[in-house]
Amino acid sequence: MKIEEENMNQNRTLLFGALIGAFTGLVAAMMLNRRAEKTGTEVSLTTGDGMKIGMLVFGLLRAISSLGDER
Fold first, then answer.
1. Are 42 and 36 a contacting pair, CB within 8 Å?
2. For residue 6, what are the CA distances in angstroms to 1, 3, 37, 49?
3. Is the pLDDT of residue 18 over 80?
4. How far apart are CA 27 and CA 30, in angstroms?
5. pLDDT, position 71
6. Is the pTM of this model over 0.85?
7. Phi and psi at residue 46, in whole multiples of 5°?
8. Most distant pair of Cα atoms in the chain: their distance
9. How far is the C-alpha of 17 from the C-alpha of 60, rounded, in Å?
10. Which of 31, 35, 45, 70 could share a disulfide with 49, CB 3.0–4.6 Å?
């Protein structure tokens, strides 16, 4: 029984994380579109912008993975 509860809890955690990630990505895309509409330009991300976003995401994931670690 305990193993089934742990699997259920793990599945909930994965689902919750996936929903948060999808929602965050949607909001980010909406913000980019809104900025492009406001300035009258097209949405464009440079390679440098992509690298900055990637590094920020990796930093965020590293911070999340260290949650609950005892020091």
1. yes
2. 9, 5, 47, 40
3. yes
4. 5
5. 63
6. no
7. -85, 170
8. 58
9. 13
10. 45
